[in-house]
Specification:
There is one protein chain. It contains 4 helices and 6 strands; from the N terminus they run βββαβαααββ. It has 162 residues and is α+β, with helices and mostly antiparallel strands. The strands form 2 sheets. Strands 3-2-1-4 form a 4-stranded antiparallel β-sheet, with helices on one face. A two-stranded antiparallel sheet has the order 5-6. The chain is elongated. Among the domains are: 82 residues, Double Stranded RNA Binding Domain, CATH 3.30.160; 31 residues. Helix content is 33%, strand content 19%.
Length: 162
């Protein structure tokens, strides 16, 4: 699923504070000392809300058109803005066979990083996929291939590969 844009409502609050909420995600509300801070927090809050919905197995709602949003009575709406979010990538269970000693090392290392085994494998696989390995060096199959040709042996008059 591709990135989706959801509308958010930016409201002025008391003492110059701002709040933002999402009509499509009830309970997803943030506050900030400035418009910028509220908008930044709204982006993180929406991502967290989408992850929560996915964990509950709920489908992502269709974005509400801005023109249909009705703010609550008495609210001081400063602006409407759009926030983009990438839908979560569903997980899939896989079976992997590894030596028990390696699994024990992985578990200790993952625990030291505050991760589960699955999170560690995902993290390690992501790093490995992004790693830029040096290009392979050609390996030769024979001495003749390395030398580039057969050479004559001066003493016996025979041809040998070097």
């Amino acid at each position: 699923m591709k990135r989706r844009l959801y509308p958010a409502v930016l409201e002025r609050g008391p003492r110059g504070a701002f709040g933002a909420w999402f009509p499509d995600f009830p309970g997803c509300v943030v506050a900030g000392r400035s418009q910028e801070e509220a908008i930044e927090r709204a982006e993180a809050a929406l991502a967290q809300a989408v992850d929560g919905w996915a964990e509950q197995g709920r489908p992502m709602p269709e974005p509400t058109p801005i023109e249909t949003i009705v703010p609550p009575k008495g609210s001081d709406v400063a602006a409407f803005f759009m926030v983009g979010v990438d839908p979560p990538d569903p997980s899939e269970r896989v079976n992997v066979y590894l030596p028990k000693s390696l699994i024990a090392k992985i578990d200790r290392h993952a625990a030291g990083m505050g991760m589960s085994r699955s999170s560690f494998f995902g993290f390690a696989a992501t790093l490995a996929l992004e790693w830029r390995f040096p290009p392979p060096t050609p390996t030769s199959r024979s001495k003749a291939h390395r030398a580039g040709a057969l050479r004559a042996d001066k003493r016996a008059g025979k041809r040998i590969m070097r």
